[in-house]
Automatic annotation (TrEMBL):
Transmembrane segments: none annotated. One of its GO terms (cellular component) is mitochondrion. Residues 19-42 are annotated as: Disordered. InterPro entries: NDUFAF4. One of its GO terms (biological process) is mitochondrial respiratory chain complex I assembly. The gene is Ndufaf4. This is NADH dehydrogenase [ubiquinone] 1 alpha subcomplex assembly factor 4. It holds the Pfam family UPF0240. Binds calmodulin. Interacts with NDUFAF3. Belongs to the NDUFAF4 family.
Amino acid sequence: MGGRLTRVFRTFNVENRARREISKEKPTPAPRHRTSRLDQLSDHPEIREEIYRKDDRLLTLLKDVYVESRDPPVQVKDGGGEHLPCKLQEKRLTKLGNLGHLDVKKVSKGRISIVEAVTLLNNHKLHPQIWTAEKIAAEYSLEVTEVNALLEFFIPFTVQEFPKETKKAI
């Protein structure tokens, strides 16, 4: 519906509008510079002679120039080492959780797996005197500032089961 409406407005009075545009006075082009390169050559034959004359002194100097070009030796890449070099990072074995074969086996130092994060957060929540930030940092090869931020901003969920009598009250 919208296409038909716009087409009506677009084609309304097209011929009159076209005639009006055609009959408008055309703008005058900008004036050209009176001298151009071709005009100078035709007006001054001595310039033309100077251009086409051979200079023997310059030709002898040009013949003395010798350019020797050498490409650097091409190094053939060995197809065996297709892997890009990567940083060698120290890895540590993780404290495995309940998932066994699904758990991550090795983690870079300074990082922890999800299972380890949940475990250390839960341990700190249950026994904060034993599992201090310094002990967690030493146990999992982390920095103390990062462990403090982790313990401050992340709190594990607690599951609470309500007895059947109190469900009705809620």
